[in-house]
Structures are given as structure tokens and as C-alpha cells.
Automatic annotation (TrEMBL), chains A, B:
<dbReference type="InterPro" id="IPR034137">
    <property type="entry name" value="TOPRIM_RecR"/>
</dbReference>
<feature type="zinc finger region" description="C4-type">
    <location>
        <begin position="56"/>
        <end position="71"/>
    </location>
</feature>
<keyword id="KW-0479">Metal-binding</keyword>
<dbReference type="InterPro" id="IPR015967">
    <property type="entry name" value="Rcmb_RecR_Znf"/>
</dbReference>
<feature type="domain" description="Toprim">
    <location>
        <begin position="79"/>
        <end position="174"/>
    </location>
</feature>
<keyword id="KW-0227">DNA damage</keyword>
<dbReference type="Pfam" id="PF13662">
    <property type="entry name" value="Toprim_4"/>
</dbReference>
<dbReference type="InterPro" id="IPR006171">
    <property type="entry name" value="TOPRIM_dom"/>
</dbReference>
<dbReference type="Pfam" id="PF21175">
    <property type="entry name" value="RecR_C"/>
</dbReference>
<comment type="function">
    <text>May play a role in DNA repair. It seems to be involved in an RecBC-independent recombinational process of DNA repair. It may act with RecF and RecO.</text>
</comment>
<dbReference type="InterPro" id="IPR000093">
    <property type="entry name" value="DNA_Rcmb_RecR"/>
</dbReference>
<keyword id="KW-0863">Zinc-finger</keyword>
<keyword id="KW-0233">DNA recombination</keyword>
<dbReference type="Pfam" id="PF21176">
    <property type="entry name" value="RecR_HhH"/>
</dbReference>
<comment type="similarity">
    <text>Belongs to the RecR family.</text>
</comment>
<keyword id="KW-0234">DNA repair</keyword>
<keyword id="KW-0862">Zinc</keyword>
């Protein structure tokens, strides 16, 4: 459609998640109109991320060192381990400043439709980490959807009988939300998980 | 939030049009999970487009040569000139296969709010092209929105008394929309039904 280099860029951009043909075209023309320096920065950021970033050999989070900042932070407790699906979940939880333990990143969730089974996740690595008996509690912080629940159930079964407390993040109404906009499942969970109020 | 290279990439991606923080994060993790070769291709496509692509010295369309493929195509008629805002509009019109004349790309539309006046568009170049009297009809194919209409009206006035037929794409294009989002059939009909403009 376009001449070589423009179409090549549109094609490459179109392979990115969430970037359709129209967005790819819009981005390509934005790039054409940008300073060469700005484009150079984006181009370098792309190759840098592949060259510099690896996965932490302990927890599987993204890291520029063999071990990530959280795994090497001596101020954090090793008694409690939070299991998440993706590195971005670590960022979300860190933002709450509620958790001072360690993480384990599975790299996804069990999803038979997409062909993701337990062996495709970092579950073996999790069991190896737990073998030394240092961890007292595992929080299963997988997503509150079908795949995340299935993964949590699978892991809870694997951890049974190891003398480790296993917990799951509470489901309920989002804080600041409106009850009338909550879906049935969330509202049902909020009822199940209701807590006594000391007035 | 993330370590250096990942956050750098998220920041750079977030500057692209239509890419919010969540999309930038999703794309960054997609990049991390992609083959190095694939990322290299995207990175190269970005710098290539800046290095190789220029604007056709005749029509202002994107081109890897001093003159674009359409301007140098001897099978096309030079009697009829289609004036568009952006290179992507040329692609949309070419897709209809309704038009066998030449193009003139203005590089935008008159938009006082964004500070784009007639002098910021390739209008002088248009008048120079028309000076030799070869063009018999000018089709004003600017977008059917306020800025596009204003630009068409402005051009129609400038072209008055030059002995050139001036037309505007027929309505049928949704008013308030963008030309680039029109489907081939609608855009083709709009070509067929173009009307003479009395300025």
C-alpha cells in the first residue's frame, strides 16, 4: 500500500498487542513527523530492553541483574511469598505498600484453551523454593478470573500437607466503587467474605 | 516503577499516539517475550522510516525517491488533481481504484485552534503546480469535518477565475468523520458523485 519503509513499519507495529492496522498507520505517520532523535530513542529502548532485561533467576520477575531488586533486598521478609501471574502484577502490589515479603512470578496462568498447562508455568521453580521450609505463608495472588482461580486451586492442592499457610487475595467490592455497578459474581463474593464489624 | 530499561521502553511507547500507560506496559512485556530478531526488525523499521522516507518534491506524498510512484507513473492523467490533507488519504483513495489522476498533499488542514494557517500547508506549491494550465479539474478531497471544509472553501476561493473546474467529494461520507475511516465503497461513491463548487 505504502512504499517500502513506511509499509514495513506499519506491518511491524501491527504485530504489537492492541495495535490494529489503523493505529499502526497513525503511529507510523507520527514517527515520520517526529524528530530523528526521538525515534532513535524509541528504537534504542526496544533493543535495550531485549539486551539488558532478563528474568530474575529466583522469582522470575523482570530484572537487569541475575537477581532482581526485591529478591536481593535484605529488608524484606522471606517468610511470606506472594505468587503472581506476571511481572506487572508485582508492580501493582508494590504500589499498595502493603506487602513486605517476596514474590514468585509464574509467567501466566493455567489456560487449557490457549494450551497453557502447569508445566508451562514456573511451578517447579516454586516448589524448589519452598523446599527449604523457610516460607511460612504463600499468598496466591493470581487474577480473580477463571484461569487465575484454576491456577490458584491447582497450586493450593500442590501445597497441601507441606505445613505452609496458603491464602488467596480477598474478593469483594472495589473500594470507591458503587454497589449498583458491581457484577453478580463480585457482589456474591463480597457477601460470602463479609467480615464482622466492631462498632 | 520497573527497572531502568523496561521503564524507559514503557515511557517511550507511551509517547506514541493512542498508546496509554496500560498499552505501553502490555507492549513492553510483549517485546520482552518476543524473539530478539523480531524486536530488531521493529527497531530497524523505526529508524529506517526516518532515514529513507522523504516527501515527494512534486505532490508532498511520502516517498523513498525524490518523486513518488504516482507522480512518476506515466499511465496516469495530469488533467485532474486530487487535493488531500495527508499521505494516508492518498492510500485510502488509491484503494478505491476510482481515480487515475494525480495528487497534491497539503500536509494538514486549516485549523486556527491548533495554529495551522494556509501558510503552514503546501498551498503555494499547489498554485505553482497549477500555473502551467495543464490541470483541468481540481478535486478538493479534504476531510468532511470543520477543518477540511474550511480548507476546501479557502482553496475554492483561491482557484476561482483560473479556468479550472473545482469539485468536492460528494456527501455520502459521514459528516464529522475522518476520510481515512471511510470504507472503499463509500469513498468510491463519493468520487463518482463529486459536485462542482461555486465559490
Amino acid at each position: 500500500m505504502y512504499e517500502g519503509a513506511v509499509q514495513d513499519l506499519i506491518d511491524e507495529l501491527g504485530r504489537l498487542p492492541g495495535v490494529g492496522p489503523k493505529s499502526a498507520q497513525r503511529i507510523a505517520f507520527h514517527v515520520l513527523a517526529s524528530d530523528a532523535e526521538e525515534v532513535e530513542r524509541l528504537s534504542r529502548a526496544l533493543t535495550d530492553v531485549k539486551a539488558k532485561v532478563r528474568f530474575c533467576e529466583i522469582c522470575g520477575n523482570v530484572s537487569e541483574q541475575p537477581q532482581c531488586r526485591i529478591c536481593t533486598d535484605t529488608r524484606r521478609t522471606s517468610d511470606i511469598l506472594c505468587v503472581v501471574e506476571e511481572p506487572k502484577d508485582v508492580v501493582s502490589i508494590e504500589r499498595t505498600r502493603e506487602f513486605r515479603g517476596r514474590y514468585h512470578v509464574l509467567g501466566g496462568a493455567i489456560n487449557p484453551i490457549d494450551g497453557v498447562g502447569p508445566d508451562d508455568l514456573r511451578i517447579r521453580e516454586l516448589m524448589t523454593r519452598l523446599a527449604d521450609g523457610q516460607v511460612e505463608e504463600v499468598i496466591l495472588a493470581t487474577d480473580p478470573n477463571i484461569e487465575g482461580e484454576a491456577t490458584a486451586t491447582y497450586l493450593a492442592r500442590m501445597l497441601r500437607g507441606m505445613g505452609i499457610a496458603v491464602s488467596r487475595l480477598a474478593s469483594g467490592l472495589p473500594v470507591g466503587g458503587d454497589l449498583e455497578y458491581a457484577d453478580e459474581v463480585t457482589l456474591g463474593r463480597a457477601f460470602e467474605g463479609r467480615r464482622r464489624v466492631e462498632a
